[in-house]
Design goal:
Double Stranded RNA Binding Domain; Rossmann fold; alpha/beta; 6-stranded antiparallel β-sheet; 4 domains; 7-stranded mixed β-sheet
Length: 461
């Protein structure tokens, strides 16, 4: 055994003698340097010098992340603050100009109806505690974040630990966990995730079978670690979307993460993202409207096959993911999607019955109603719940002229006028199928340009 001073003196005298690399370890418990029994001091000093020179070499260490880009940038910021305290941005000058760090405000939560933002950045920076190591954070066209670190080899182990910590941070502390997320398009990265506030409608009235199906079999299954797919069918305006949002509120209360798909073109992307955030302990709920636009007809193309594989395929099996799909046109849904095992529960949202319509009126108008004769009130059958709700809003607007009271006659006028309006809006445009019209449709594209040209010539003469 000998002290460090003696060993460094020997190292300074050595040249370039080749020796096998020997593992070097550091200890906080001792100030001694211990060398192997069969190794002399000179050989040990040469070995340490070789390792020192090797550790002074610069290496590039890279890592890309398969998470959402905003989530990743936020995680990099948090892990960097915990590891280094802060990071110094760096401007890179080149023949093509200067490249400065880009600072961006990322929404991390919604509190009291207001979005909460944190400032994150991407670009180049310097890590002073690693002898001014260069770190570059970039976002590719697919919206994936990558980190490249150029540092001395001596810091490689710490760099790898840092990069791994970013991934672990997202898994445990993602900005999206147990929140409501909208999946929408992004002009640069394909899709974007946006934290949103779930707005529920307590006035929704469902028939007894639908209400019990949702409560007993859908809400009660939310926390069970398995894959389930539900289809809500029925005409527009009968509460499919509102019910899905009410279920989403229950899901958030139970610790799930909720994904709302803004456009059916991004259903596949939404399920891909949701599966990344799904674990047996942390379930996810995906909601997509008008699924007949994505899974209709008898032909199966590559896009539909990909969607079906996600719904029923190996990527979703054994995962804690629930999916709610809606359609206004149940008859258009592909037979492939209807196959047993793909759709677990179908809930029909039919037009309300008379008793259900009365309950909707009571929910919306409440104590303003006066002397309503429910037996004689004319409620048109086979209209959607939204029509009844709009009639109630119309009646509520008029009550400002009647000291806040909605009478039987006022309610009847609102109902009748709203139903007639809805019926008119739903009517097909009357077609003119006369021979004269048919001939005009055929030859108009040919004749019109000729007539226009003749008129132009006549004006110029």
């Amino acid at each position: 055994m000998f002290n460090k001073k003696d060993l460094m003196a020997l190292m300074a005298q050595q040249l370039n003698k080749v020796a096998p690399i020997t593992e070097t370890t550091f200890s906080d418990d001792s100030e001694k340097i211990i060398i192997p029994k069969n190794m002399d001091k000179k050989t040990a000093s040469e070995e340490l010098m070789r390792q020192y020179e090797s550790e002074e070499e610069e290496v590039d260490v890279s890592q890309s992340y398969d998470w959402d880009w905003q989530d990743t940038l936020h995680a990099i910021k948090k892990v960097s603050e915990n590891t280094f305290g802060w990071i110094q941005g760096k401007t890179i000058h080149s023949f093509f100009g200067s490249s400065r760090p880009t600072y961006i405000q990322i929404c991390t939560d919604i509190k009291d109806g207001k979005k909460v933002y944190e400032e994150c950045f991407y670009g180049n920076s310097v890590i002073s505690s690693w002898e001014d190591a260069d770190m570059s954070i970039s976002i590719n066209r697919a919206g994936k974040v990558g980190i490249n670190l150029t540092c001395k080899k001596r810091y490689k182990t710490r760099v790898l630990k840092f990069l791994k910590s970013v991934d672990e941070f997202i898994k445990e502390n993602s900005i999206y966990l147990n929140k409501a997320i909208m999946v929408k398009s992004h002009r640069n990265y394909g899709i974007e995730l946006e934290i949103l506030e779930v707005k529920t409608n307590p006035n929704i009235v469902l028939n007894q079978i639908s209400a019990k199906t949702i409560n007993n079999y859908i809400i009660n299954e939310l926390t069970q670690p398995k894959k389930r797919t539900y289809l809500f069918t029925g005409a527009y305006g009968n509460g499919k979307s509102e019910t899905a949002m009410n279920i989403a509120e229950k899901a958030l209360e139970k610790g799930l993460t909720f994904f709302y798909v803004e456009n059916t073109d991004y259903v596949k992307n939404a399920i891909d993202v949701a599966l990344k955030y799904s674990t047996p302990e942390k379930g996810v709920l995906v909601f997509a409207e008008d699924i007949d636009q994505k899974a209709s007809g008898s032909q199966r193309d590559a896009e539909m096959n990909s969607f079906l594989n996600q719904i029923d395929g190996v990527t979703a099996k054994g995962r804690n993911i629930k999916t709610i799909l809606t359609t206004n046109h149940a008859n258009k849904i592909s037979q492939a999607l209807r196959r047993p095992g793909r759709i677990d529960i179908v809930v029909a949202f039919d037009n309300p019955s008379r008793s259900e319509s009365i309950q909707i009126i009571k929910n919306f108008c409440g104590s303003a109603l006066r002397d309503i004769d429910w037996d004689t009130l004319d409620i048109v059958d086979n209209v959607s719940a939204s029509v009844i709700a709009e009639a109630c809003k119309r009646a509520n607007t008029y009550k400002s002229h009647t000291k806040g009271i909605i009478s039987h006659d006022d309610l009847q006028v609102a109902l009748t006028s709203m139903v007639r309006q809805a019926q008119y809006m739903a009517e097909d445009l009357e077609e003119d199928n006369s021979l004269e019209t048919a001939v005009s449709r055929i030859f108009s594209p040919v004749i019109s340009p000729i007539i226009d040209k003749l008129e132009h010539i006549e004006e110029s003469m």
